[in-house]
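Re: the 123-residue chain
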Amino acid sequence: MNIHPIYTENDYNVALKRVESLMDATPGSREFDELEILSTLVESYETKHYSIDAPDPIEAIKFRMEQEGLIQKDLVAILGSKSRVSEVLNKKRKLTLEMIRNLHANLNIPFENLLEEYRVQAS
């Protein structure tokens, strides 16, 4: 086992190839231990160099709607009215605390996604 920190893109690619070759390692074996260590290093490198920003709350809602096959009228019971749903989804109205709670409870959207700052369009 010759493991070292991942500093460069080349180090990263070499580590990915090695991880791929170790995917069938037996738990408890030296190869499995190597897989665990390399996976941690790869994850750390990816977090630093390939971070993905969380979606704004409205994009998170739209994503969940797409996943669940929902349309705007399906959110009326959650957000209040047809016009309010339209205003929220078009970023003309901010989410209220009650809306955030309802979205979390009914659509299982994590609070941390719903509480992110986002801009509303000026009227």
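Residues 9-49 form one domain.
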